[in-house]
Amino acid sequence: MSVNKSNRFLKALLREPVDRTPVWIMRQAGRYLPEYRQTRAQAGSFLELCKNPKLATEVTLQPLQRFPQLDAAILFSDILTIPDAMGLGLTFQENEGPVFQRPISHRQDILDLPKLDIAKDLDYVLNAVESIRSALDNRVPLIGFSGSPWTLATYMVEGRGKVGFEKIKQLAYEHPKDLSLLLDKLVEAVADYLNAQISKGAQVVQIFDTWGGILSTQAYYDFSLNPMAKIIEQLEVNSQGDKVPVILFTKGGGSWLEAMAQTGADALGLDWTVDIKKAKKSVGNRVALQGNLDPSILKYNSEVVRQQTRQVLDDFTSDGSNIGHIFNLGHGITPEINPQRVNDMLNEVAQETP
């Protein structure tokens, strides 16, 4: 199979040779784009935008239309769709982020969580996946995603986005059986959710573990990594009978890359605190690596953006090989970024020669 824009990303995930490093951006459809802000205003709110498959398709495609250098699309949605469907009353408040009206505070709250019927309870997400995949017409692959069980549990217990972690850590250390019960329910829901996205056409899935890095090593293994490994074990093949690549991203997880590489994931996302050269030596040829430009670099001038982008590329290829690298930011792009700086970064990646 020859390398082209439609399969460059997929081949890199499987550690196959590519003509250049593929690139996409976490939160590439978002508030830094004026066209996104217009569509969000049309929808009325962020949550209504997520729940409108037509508009979700539109904003998923917007960065691809602006930046032809991108090698993948990612479903426009939110990591908190599962707890929202479980009835916790999700809202998004200005300058506060996500807030749950009915957070978990007792064991009975966990027992009362419903088993989701993904096709019914999250039909708007699946309809968006189907719509986006059709609209892409195989120009680039489509990434589906979910939050990790630990990250979802953190929001569900803390009740809001600006979290201090006191409540979830108390649950972890004083009532670990209750937390395990919650995580087991979330493992089942996330596995079903990702499999449903795959059935509708997602060609790659990423598990976002936003808060795994706040844990001690053993707690990370028990409450974050092991649940994600269980999900990966349950993922199904696509309609062609092929395994769908899985990207695992733990923010702050640089110390645990070797353990993460043993989960069955095909690629590991790296935040910007990780030395990509050391990461590559650590995981060997077991997984691809994704990352890891500091998102704040995009606030600076074009010369800085290009130089720092080149540094990441050079660090990865310092051993003479570009196999198994997907360029990305070390976390999501932030709203205040000038799209021209994104263009500078993407141009630097696109100019790479093997």
Bin the helical content: 40-55%
Alpha-beta classification:
alpha/beta
The portion of residues forming beta strands comes to 5-15%
| Span between termini | 18 Å
Instruction: Provide the CATH top-level class of the domain at 45-59 and 72-246.
Output: Alpha Beta
Query: Rough shape?
Result: globular
Determine Rg (CA atoms, Å). 19 Å
Largest sheet: 7 strands, parallel
Instruction: List unreliable stretches of 5+ residues.
Output: none
User: What is the total tally of β strands?
Assistant: 9
What is the mean predicted local confidence, pLDDT? Answer: 95
Task: Provide the CATH topology of the domain at 45-59 and 72-246.
Answer: TIM Barrel
Strand order of the largest sheet: 1-4-5-6-7-8-9
What are the key terms here?
16 helices; TIM Barrel; 46% helix; 354 residues; 7-stranded parallel sheet; alpha/beta; 10% strand
Give the SSE layout:
Blueprint: H1 8-13, H2 34-43, H3 46-50, H4 53-66, E1 73-74, H5 81-85, E2 90-93, E3 97-100, H6 107-111, H7 118-121, H8 123-136, E4 142-147, H9 149-158, H10 166-174, H11 176-199, E5 204-209, H12 217-234, E6 246-250, H13 257-260, E7 267-269, H14 276-283, E8 288-290, H15 302-316, E9 325-326, H16 339-350
Parallel strand pairs: 1-4, 4-5, 5-6, 6-7, 7-8, 8-9
Antiparallel strand pairs: 2-3
